[in-house]
TrEMBL record, chains A, B, C:
This is Vicilin. It comes from Zamia furfuracea (Cardboard cycad). Signal peptide: none annotated. Residues 1-103, 143-284 form the Cupin type-1 domain. SMART domains: Cupin_1. InterPro entries: Cupin_1 (IPR006045), RmlC-like_jellyroll (IPR014710), RmlC_Cupin_sf (IPR011051), Seed_Storage-Functional (IPR050253).
Amino acid sequence: ADLALYVTGGRGRVAFVHEERLVERQLRDGDVYAIAAGIPFYILNTDDSRRLFIHCLLRTQCSTTGLYESFYVVGGRNPQNVLSQFSEDVLQAAFNSSKAVLDPMLVSGFNRGAIITVSREQMERLSRGRIKGFGGSEEPQPFNLLYRNPDFSNNNGEIFTADAADHRVLRRLNVGVQLLNLKPRSMTAPHYDTRSTRIGIVRNGRGILELVRPQEQEQQQQQQGPTYQKLRANLNPGTVFLTRPGYPSTVIASGNEALQILYFDINSQGNRRQFLAGRSNVLRYLP
Amino acid sequence: ADLALYVTGGRGRVAFVHEERLVERQLRDGDVYAIAAGIPFYILNTDDSRRLFIHCLLRTQCSTTGLYESFYVVGGRNPQNVLSQFSEDVLQAAFNSSKAVLDPMLVSGFNRGAIITVSREQMERLSRGRIKGFGGSEEPQPFNLLYRNPDFSNNNGEIFTADAADHRVLRRLNVGVQLLNLKPRSMTAPHYDTRSTRIGIVRNGRGILELVRPQEQEQQQQQQGPTYQKLRANLNPGTVFLTRPGYPSTVIASGNEALQILYFDINSQGNRRQFLAGRSNVLRYLP
Amino acid sequence: ADLALYVTGGRGRVAFVHEERLVERQLRDGDVYAIAAGIPFYILNTDDSRRLFIHCLLRTQCSTTGLYESFYVVGGRNPQNVLSQFSEDVLQAAFNSSKAVLDPMLVSGFNRGAIITVSREQMERLSRGRIKGFGGSEEPQPFNLLYRNPDFSNNNGEIFTADAADHRVLRRLNVGVQLLNLKPRSMTAPHYDTRSTRIGIVRNGRGILELVRPQEQEQQQQQQGPTYQKLRANLNPGTVFLTRPGYPSTVIASGNEALQILYFDINSQGNRRQFLAGRSNVLRYLP
């Protein structure tokens, strides 16, 4: 799957193979990055004390099965290394060595899941790796959503946006990323997106989501015109929600602290956000 | 849904919100126009005595549900206004006013369907609206299919075509529009389209559609090569029909008056029309 | 369907109608060519003694039914001519002649299938046809995969590749073509493609395909990380196999003669081939 990532805490490094080089990029809070499907990569937490938090969007459109399928090219018992599945004769011929020689490489400490602790020696080896692959300078740097002026800001909050126009890695995926900071007792003006499907992830604070969607109708009712249905849901840290193109919605910071939501905007190309209240309200231009 | 429209009678106005302006375009018989999904718009019949007739094509490819979903941002009991579905506390906060104040805006006379009569005062208000939104000059003008030379013309009839090459609004939708005028007792040469699916709408006259399609086959029969099936149908004003890419068809004006058909050509980009008889007959170039 | 073809033996000619001309291109062993959906064409074996062998890929993405549907614009009882399905009155009007006059054209000797023997006289008529349609010079020439330096070559074999960058006809279809020659007792390094689905057709020799694919898992197992499954299959002349993006695989020439495989790479645009062993091994760049 194509992968878009957003760092929400900690410090680390992402490394991936690009045109026979290992390309490394530093990651810090607010960084947006993307890695194309099939590119081998790893992520390293380089901070001694803090956890590294990353939100990922996986787009499976390039998968012929439509499923998310992950392949570990380095691994052991858990996760399995894809290479270890080949027959012993294939491996011996491919690596020109006996399976016994391969074993250490195939295991690499991966026995209890895809996340492992890296020793100081391994860390040094990774650093040497970085020096070896000093190239890849044409690959983009991460784009930081926080170290720039917000796209919108007033007494009630601020919005930071990164889309195809800002960053090549997002254009490839047709995805935008947005961060909303809403002060307590504030709300966004009711709005909808013309083309994007949005996935929202609540990072901090508590709030309310209100969304209006079309109501399914019987044939006879359709002559009465469309009717709509309201959905109201509580937002807590970790809540994930989705809004479809055309469906109006609003979020309200109902707690005592700011409400912070990270959005992935899928199919963001050509999308417009239409507000139904406030200064940019489309209703102002209608009779 | 993305919308392509063709005016077949009367006079009016289409108005839509584009980059915080209300853009208005005059509509008259033969005009082709398109409005992208999610753009709020209204259509006004400005003629005192005549009806305004418009044929619309709705492309739902940007809808994640695959359904056509319409949203009324101004409305009342029927159609419902999407805004009216939000909770009263949301609306009061959004509009900084009590629901009572909102009521007139929410109702606006929409109680018996999406089409309403506009009083002289409301018409004036709409005109003021137009002055306010004097911009949008970069948005294209409607394209008139009739006020130009036909793409094809002889004693038997004429064809007017508008596609991506002619008009930006059609390129966005990958749709072409075509008008066929066929004199009584005339027919089109049997032909097929290489990539377009065509939707035909009979506007005037009577005729016959003949179409050849592949016949489904049992496994054993397939060794005998493909076989085909003829469909023959009467065409009357209002008849709608569809032809798939590759399926040869012809229409015949069988009545005493001209047969006029409006076509929407879906996926018109890269399409070629191949004739199986007549001067441009592909068979002339085959052994 | 859009068609990509690769000539694997013999000599011949492909002729198709392009902008009211008959365009002809010579075909010989190793030639790659493509014909867009809906373009009438025929293929002629011009060699007196040898068979003409062609491998074809049919892409049905432009078909609204998703099925491969073939239409014969010249034909008789088998295959049927699509034209012959129209009503007699339609045909008489279209061709301005009685059905009796049409009969010879409609039959043309096609009674026992889509492949017929062409007499010396008919061959001459086809040659005259070629002179008539001397144009189409802007249409590309076939691209020969063999009369160029291999993209990769060493003691174990060689690889010839043609993709969008090489040839306009392949860019249209988003398809690449590749020919692999593997010496006896040689193997390809285990590898996967990031975006392409590959269809392999064994032309000569015997071998083994080994492929690793993800194993479907129960919910509970998923917490254990992904597991994989090996597929091992014998390759013989005529064997057709498919590899999905991301699935690592290798082929081994296990017989006494070279193993030759023709590949069609579907969705080749933006694809990268990642090797898991050998000089370009992505593992070299990982810790």
